[in-house]
Specification:
With about 325 residues, the chain is of the alpha/beta class. It has 11 helices and 12 strands. The radius of gyration is 21 Å and the shape is globular.
Amino acid sequence: MKNDALLRIDDLHTHFYTDEGLVKAADGIDITIGSGDTLGLVGESGCGKSVTALSIMRLIQEPPGRIVKGEVLFHDLNLLKLSEREMEHIRGNRISMIFQEPMTSLNPLFRAGDQIAEAIHLHQKVSKAEAKRRAVQMLQKVGIPDPEKRAKEYPHQMSGGMRQRVMIAMALSCNPELMIADEPTTALDVSIQAQILELMNNLKEDFGASILLITHDLGVIAEMAQTVAVMYAGKIVEYVDVVRLFDNPRHPYTSGLMDSIPKMDDAVPEDKMLRTIPGVVPSLYDLPTGCYFQPRCSLSSDVCFEKVPPLLEIEPGHLLRCWKYE
């Protein structure tokens, strides 16, 4: 929430027009990422986190998807107004993305080093030989042993953690100002997760990049982020710095997420070691009236069934979408 905003999203609406009906996957998103900061975007699967990231990159498939409203301001340049050719100079160069599943994001027909070198050759305007040399350097920087050999291997010859490092190397190969990481540790074992997170933090310091970190793992958020935006059913429901979020979560959904973290403490009664949020996430085809969280909320009142609450600043730098604090 700094004034030196690198990226600012104002009232972003991304909809999908399907045979089953209209899906408002991103429904009025407002977030800001400061220079050198990490913003954590957290929420359950299907809440619109990845759609928000793909909207920034202008990678929403049309049809069925369409960005119908809003602004995505990168250095005050509205990315939604740029031509596809202009976006190609931004995408992968000044803004890069680590996709959720490296095995499907890397091309199985090309060697890992060639895929990194292609991005460098395209955006940095260097020779193919120089691009390949820099690709090997990037593989070394992300901690891949024997990078010259690995550069000649195909994705299927690598482990999940190794492929994820290749994705990070590709994302950082052009020294981007913003890196979007969509579930960067999904399907990795705990030790590899820790290595990937440490790597991202170190590279952030080295390159001075900002990070939009998309995850459902609050432990990752606590370790990586300075600011957190909590999403539910396409909307931001709480937006605050990470310290206040963990010290005093104010939205009932955020509190439920915190309570669902397993507690390994002898002082905690057994029946309270792991709580769950009752009910299920509503279908985006058939959202409840009023507050989208009200069917699962123990604090709901009459107004919660009637109107969607606005996102209000309840204290300096703390935004909340809940009628309880209206």
